Each structure stands twice: as structure tokens, then as C-alpha cells.
Amino acid sequence: MRMTKLPWAAAAAALALIGPALLRGEGLLATAALWRVPPWNGVLPPMPGTGLLADQLFYFAPWRQFMREEFLAGSFPLWNPFLLAGVPFAACIQAAPFHPLNAGLLWLPAVPFSLISAFLKLFCAGVFTGLHLQRLGASERGAVLGAVVFSLGGFMVAWLGHPHTTTACLLPALFWALGRLSDRPGPREAALLSLFTGLALLGGHPPTMLHVLGAAAAYGIFLSRGRARFLGWAALAAALGAALAAPALLPYFEYHALSSTAAASASLGRGGTSLSPWLPLHLLMPLASGSPALGAEILAGLFGLGPESNFIERAAWTGLIPLGFAALAVVRRRRDGEVLFHAGLALFGLLAALGAPPLPWLWKALPGFSSVNPTRLLLLWSFGVAVLAGLGEKERPRTWIVWPAVAAGGLYSIKVWLSLDELRPGESAFAAFVLLLLAAECAAALWVLRRRPWAPWLAGLFCLIPALDVNPSAAAATFFPATPAVLALKAAAGEGRVFALGRNLEPNLGMPFRIRDARGRDFTTPRRYEELVTGGAGSFDFYSGAEAPPPNPALLAVGAVLTRDGVLRSSAPARRALFVPAARAGSPAEVLAAVRAPGFDPAKLVWLDDGDAPSFPAARGSARITADGANSVVVETEADGPGWLVLLDGWFPGWEARVDGAPARVRRADYAFRAVQVPAGRSVARFDYRPSSVGVGLILALLSAGLLALAWLATSRRPGLP
To answer: Is 702 part of any domain?
Structure first.
């Protein structure tokens, strides 16, 4: 079975997961979080599901909606004007604007996109796991078994709507490509590895990139056996893959250097995060404490689960049948290097999630890993077990494959029995359902002892059952519906920005309505803007759930404030474009102190910290925005003398300006904004965002793609290669 049953099995597994939503005409949209937050909580009816998937709706969906609207209007957004004072969208790595899955499907509305992207991720994960197993000598059934188990396993399913899985689905592809390169070092195989490396780097979640590429590097070292030729080709492939991803990586590195991300990540201490010791029980019984689609962690108190041990974080089930075959592979083929490597990979992922010493100390010492959540290394557990299951399928099963499940069921029963007096009726009934499901899985495992051809399908079924309780579906009508409060807020803000207190209108949720928000969560925050607003830097939840309005609303061009009780307060229409006659120069520290001082008026004086500051205090004039796009802004000024046009939008490298058609220097104004000098009379100033980081990245990507295409076409097709 080279390419016969495998793609059909991978497609069937993916369709089994998305099928119920598809039949209902719904999408895998986490809108269950929306009806719980103002201003939608009084408009939308209650929907099943919890807030565990809220990030999909609060962050990733608004980014895609913004990107799609700009695309349909005929432009590709490099700048996002709707968060903070504007942020570089090309550098928003979690939005993954350059990944083919996102950029290639921009024309699709939210519902079909959610289904098609989910299918493609699951299909990719399944097919390449199967191909990797075929290369390792697995049987036909073993390849299908591994494909189904990894694609429907806990990690892929729980993170399906996040950018994590856009990269995670390529882990088996990288292993397969490395195996091919190890077998036949050459340009064609290196080109394939480069392609998957580039796609993994474009996936949108840096921690998952680190985990996936780290695992691939370890596998490459394992395969090398000291062969310099293989290592040379692999290193070249990695470099060309990084060049393919340069349009996303270079802007991100530029943004990161000017952000407070490092300080914010360090404050979280994520390198020391670990899951509950009850994790192994939840791998055998994935619904042991509840599920997102059922509304809550129903039995969370039973296991003392904390915020870092929620269902999504610990989701890495693979099912009892695959675990049994994986154990058989380790026991019967313990001298096989591939078996030992994948067993070590799986064990490493499990121990990392549990925070086993000395790993927490190791994360603190390794650059990058200290700010990465190690519990997500459960991805390696899921993949390792899936591969071992496919390799162990050839081995004759034994009844001991169900013993761990029986022990887990006994432990669970004792735990429930001892807490029976504290449980509510619904919780007791749910615990009984979990035990019944485990008993059915044990029976299926015993059936597999006699009917091994059923192994892939029964394993897939018992992966699918918990999977269906993770990603709730919703109709398109529940996806960011306009409410009277949202429309009133947009009208009150005008060309300016809004500000909401508490959890009233989460920071990114104005984006689908093209509302500019002085808050925002981009997972990367411009340091200067955060320092301007708060006086410091390093808050990961910068201005989420603020208790008070900003100290100087005019400086942030805030024209409307939504209070905690939903009351809209608006002042005079906010102006982002100002004609300012007087100017002063100072150091960055002096400018920050001056503009944060009470009573500072950005319409009367502009502070510059990047050079001299010609001042024209006698001039009088006005400014108005005549064109306002994502990548460009046009402002008309009229004045009786020269002065400064201050645009209260974020300063960032890549912004260029022309005044009456002539190039003009964009100055850094009032610590975080833009300004250009304008002459007397009527003038037109145009600001355009043309970041060199994106331009250089595109050149590198095109050169890399050209080299890879030449390598692929110039190399004759070799016998036996698919």
C-alpha cells in the first residue's frame, strides 16, 4: 500500500471529525465564548461550550476577518490600524498571513474556512504519519493505524482551531522528508525537506515551531550516524526553508526587537509550567473530568486541577488500542533504533508536560525555551505513540494491553467513590458515563486480539468519541453579529479610537467592525506604546480588563469609552491628525516624562526624540484625514505658516511619507507616533507603510523557491520514489 488506502483513511478520519458540523451547515467556530461577554451577552442565546477555546474567537478570528476584508477590497494588509495605535500586521506571526492555508483561502467566509482548514490539517497529519510509517517498514494496517491515531489524537483535535496545529501537522512530514534524505542524500530530497521546513516556520505559533523543529533536528542527528553528506544536505535544506519563511520571520524579528515581548514572557515564567500528576489518568480516560463542548471541567475539583491543567492543555489521548500496540513495539522490538527513538520522543514529551526534574531547570538555561510552555510538548507524546502503534501492529497482541486501562478505571472509581458525598447528581452521572466508555474501549481492545484487521477502525472510533466533545460548531449568524452597542460605539469613535473598561468588548473584538481600539492584544506589544500608556513594559495582558481610562485620552485619540456597565461615554470627536505649530526636542526619557505629564496637549506642542525640532509657535492651521487605509493614510493640512503634521498613529520602521509629492522624513513624535514637517498653505501628506523587512523577505523567499524548483526539476526521478 504505497498510496492507496492511506489517503482515503486519512480523509475519512478528518471527515468523521468535521462531518457533524458539515451536515448541520455549521462551522467549527468557538462562538460559545461570545455570548458570555458584553455587548453580546444580552443578544445571543446561550450556547454549549466553555471559554477554553476563547482565544480562537478573541484573537485569531478577528485577524483573519480583517485580512479577508482587506483582500476582498483589493489589498494585502501589512499594517493593522485597529489595535493599539496600529501594529505591523505582516509581523503578527500568530496571524500567519503568509501561510498558504491562510493566504490561499482568504476568499472563503468563516464557516467554510473553518471546515476546510480543519480537514487539510488533519489530512496532512494523517497522510504523512502513514508515509513515515511506510518508510519504517510498517504494514498496510500499521500505516493506517498510525495515520488515524495521530490525526484524531488529543493534541491535533484540541488545538485544531489554533495556529499550533498549522505547524504541528507537519511534524510527521518533516520526519518523513528527513528519512528520505537519509536514504538518498541529494537535491530532490533536500528540496522536499526545505518546503516542509518553510511551511512549519510560516505556521504561526513560535513555541510550536520550536518544538517541531527541535524534534526534527533530533531525528536528523539520530539518522545521520556521523554522515557529513547527509548533515550538509539537511543544513542546506533548513537554511533554504528558513529563506522561504523570510517574509514572516524578518518582520517578526524586527517587531520583537522593538517590543516588550521578552519582558512579558519572562514575567509569566512559562518555562516552569507543568500539568497535574493526574495527567496519565487523563491520557487513558480523556473525558475523566469533562470537556469543552459539554460546558465545563465537570469534575475538575475531584482532581484538584488548576488553570494550567485544563482540558485543552492536557489533551494528548491516543486511545487504549494504540497504546497497547505501542507497548508491544517497545517490548518486542527494543533493539530497533527507530522504535527506541520514537519511544524516547514520546516519553520526553510526557515527562516535559509533567515537569519532571531536571527539565524545568533545563528550560531556564536554554535560550527561547524559558518563555515557552513545555506542556505543549505533549505533541511529541501523541506523535511518538502513533508511530509506535503503527510499528507494533505487526506484533501479536496480548491481554495485558488492557491492564493499564483496568487499573486507571479502578483508581478513577475509588476516587469517585470517596468523593461521592461531595458530587452533584450530574457529576456522578458523568463519572458513570466515563467508566462505561472505558469499559467499552477495553472490550474493543480485547476484540482486536482476535480480529486485528479491526484495529485501525476501532482505534479511530475511540479517538473520535472524545474528539467530538472538544470543538463545538456554530452557525454563521453567531459569528460576530452586530449589536446596537457596537454600532453606537463605532459611530461615536469616528476616525478616533475607543476604550472599554473591564471585559466589556474584549480588546480585539472591535476589529471585525473596523473599530479602532486603543487597547489590543497582538501577543507582541510595541514597547514605546505600552510605556506611553502605563509608564512601564512587560505586561502580557496589556490593557485587557482595564479598570480606568488612559490618563490622557486625547494623546491616544480616544473619542468614546464603554464603561463596565455598558454605558457609552463620548466626548468631542477624537482627532488623529493634528496641525501642531510648536516643537521641542529631548531624549526618549525626557519625552516620555513630558507627554505623560498631566495637562499635556498634543494639539499645541509636539515632542521629538530623534533629532532637532524646528518650532513655529505663531503658525495656525488645521489637518484632516481624507483617505484612511490599512497601509496608507492621506492627510490634508491648511496653515498660515509652516508647522508639524502629527498623526497619532504608531511610529514604526517602514513608514514613509511624501508631502505634496516630495519625500519627507517621518519623525518619531510624542514618544510613539508619527510627524512630518509641512509648509504654509494647503498641503497633502501621504503616509505609506513599505517595510524593508517584508521586501527583503520576499526576495529571499523567491530566490529560495527558484533554487528549490531548479533542484526538483533538474534531478531525474528516481525509481521507487513516490
So the answer is: no
Do 621 and 565 have their domain in common? no
Handedness of CA 365, 277, 423, 428 (dihedral sign): positive
559 and 584 part of one domain: no
Statement to judge: residues 541 and 633 lie in one domain:
no
Cα distance between residue 624 and residue 684, in whole Å: 10
| Pair 308, 288 in one domain | yes
**pLDDT computed for residue 192 by the predictor:** 95
Distance CA 476, CA 293 (A): 18
Peptide bond into 358 cis (omega under 30): yes
Same domain, 9 and 142: yes
Question: CA angle, 704 as apex, 698 and 709 as ends, to 5°?
Answer: 125
What is the separation, in whole angstroms, between the first and last Cα of the chain? 12
**Pick from 517, 518, 529, 521: which is nearest to 670 by CA?**
529
**Looking at the structure, do residues 494 and 459 belong to the same domain, yes or no?**
no
- Say what the pTM is: 0.93
Q: Say if residue 564 is in the same domain as residue 624.
A: no
Q: Is residue 547 part of a domain?
A: yes
Sequence-separated (6 or more) residues with CB below 8 Å from residue 593: none
Q: What residue numbers bound the domain in which 308 lies? A: 5-58+80-251+274-467
Assign 450 to helix, strand or coil: helix
pLDDT tens per residue across span 410-432: 999 998 888 888 888 888 888 99
643, containing H or E segment: strand 643-650
b/e per residue 111-145 (b: at least 16 CB within 10 A): bebbbebbbbbbbbbbbbbbbbbbbbebbbbbbbb
DSSP string, 662-714: EEEPPEEETTTEEEEEE-SEEEEEEEEE--HHHHHHHHHHHHHHHHHHHHHHH
| Rounded-to-integer distance, Cα 617 and Cα 595, Å | 18
Q: Are 136 and 206 found together in one domain?
A: yes
Mean pLDDT (the chain, rounded): 89
H, E, C per residue of 589-621: HHHHHHHHCCCCCCCCEEEECCCCCCCCCCCCE
